[in-house]
Amino acid sequence: MGLLNKLFGNGLTEALQQAVENQLKTTLDPITQKDLLSLKAVDDMQFKKGELTLSVSMPYPCKSLWPAIEQTLSHHLEQIDEIKQVRVNWQTKIVSHDVQKGATPLPNIKNIIAVASGKGGVGKSTTSVNLALALQQEGARVGLLDADIYGPSIPTMLGIHEKPQSEDGKTMKPLQAYGLQVMSIGALIEEDSPMIWRGPIVTQTLTQLLKETAWEDLDYLIIDLPPGTGDVQLTLAQQIPVTGSIIVTTPQQVSLIDAKKGLKMFEKVEIPILGIIENMSTHICSQCGHEEAIFGEKGGETLAQTYHVDFLGSLPLEKRIREEADNGKPTVTADPNSAIAQKYRHIAHEVSAKIGVSKRNYGNLFPKIEIHNT
pLDDT tens, 306-326? Predict the structure, then answer.
């Protein structure tokens, strides 16, 4: 009997089951390059009067890819004589995945992704916002934590002006923007108030913002880290369960030198590096359209090759990205069909797919056992 019979026991003949299984193995997810059976994405199957109905649950958010996968899947399955029509019911099924040693996923947060950079001014916060929005548009429940205590910019980029509220006096409700759950120290203080805090207070604040926010069933929490490899990053590595990290850099050597430090830091604390994003790769003149690599060429790609990590993609230095972020309307939302939005969406696919095929964490599936003296 074929694998599908073992999974479903759906009454198909052995020959038909084997034929369906063989065709499913030829249908590849375009991001992971794995077939649907290897991804364990096929949940159910029904065959009646020539119509085959499949229930498919993708392990990462990719709504925009469903039509293309279904088109290929239908084409392959309809090569089987008995099958006249194919119907696919899609859903996204995201689970918790492994984090660094000694940590377990937090309640209501399945996966935490840290976005870091070695130095400031490389577009890390802009990347975090657009990545979060892309994941949300693709079908995930996403939160965004602004951990840049000294320079919080997320409220501005998302057009957030209200203060967080508390219903129980113990936790804060996350702010809402474009379908994202958001928390930032910038939403708790006045815009022109400087954060004159020492390291221990900063790390304590980060922990409180994370654990005292009432996040609601998140598939992913994106943490926008401050630049560098200091107290906040160390706290993240030691106290916060991180599924994976992303390094943002520009092509220039000054940025790459610091990006290497961030990369090595995550390696030492055993937080998986999901990949490197290169910002400001080229400048496109708004007048003549001339494209020029003013900060150098392929620095991020070379860095990824040197340290054997994935290169997730490059983004141009374009005025509209800055303008849209300053106006509280990030590119992925302001113009979702633009080439730049498509780049962010592709990066979101790459990152979440890499998590989706990694080892699952079962820590939250087991009941917590407490022993009391009676």
Answer: 999 999 999 988 888 888 988
CA contacts within 13 A on the Cβ side of 103: 25
Whether 27 contacts 91, CB under 8 Å: no
pTM: 0.89
What is d(CA 335, CA 333) in angstroms, rounded to the nearest whole number?
A: 6
Instruction: Give me the DSSP letters along 195-217.
Output: ----HHHHHHHHHHHHHTB---S
User: Distance between CA atoms of 352 and 348, rounded to whole angstroms?
Assistant: 6
Identify which of 331, 321, 322, 315 has the alpha carbon closest to the alpha carbon of residue 280.
Answer: 315
Q: Judge whether 94 and 59 are in contact, CB under 8 Å.
A: yes
Asked whether the beta carbons of 187 and 219 are under 8 A apart, the reply is no
- 192-236 pLDDT per residue, tens: 565 565 667 777 878 888 889 999 999 999 999 887 767 777 777
Q: What is the pLDDT of residues 118-157, one digit of tens each?
A: 777 788 999 999 999 999 999 999 999 998 877 788 989 9
Please report where in the chains the tokens 């997320």 appear, as a residue: 154
Sheet with 51-58: strands ordered across: 42-48, 51-58, 85-92
Pick the closest to residue 264 from 252, 251, 281, 247 (CA basis): 247
Give the H or E element holding residue 232.
helix 231-239
What DSSP character marks residue 10?
A: -
Taking CA atoms, 224 is separated from 117, 152, 153, 165, in Å, by 10, 9, 10, 22
Is the sign of the CA dihedral 130, 323, 316, 300 positive or negative? negative
Entry field: residues in the chain: 374
Give CA–CA dist 180/154, Å, rounded. Answer: 12
CA distances from 165 to 121, 157, 204, 250 (A): 31, 20, 20, 37
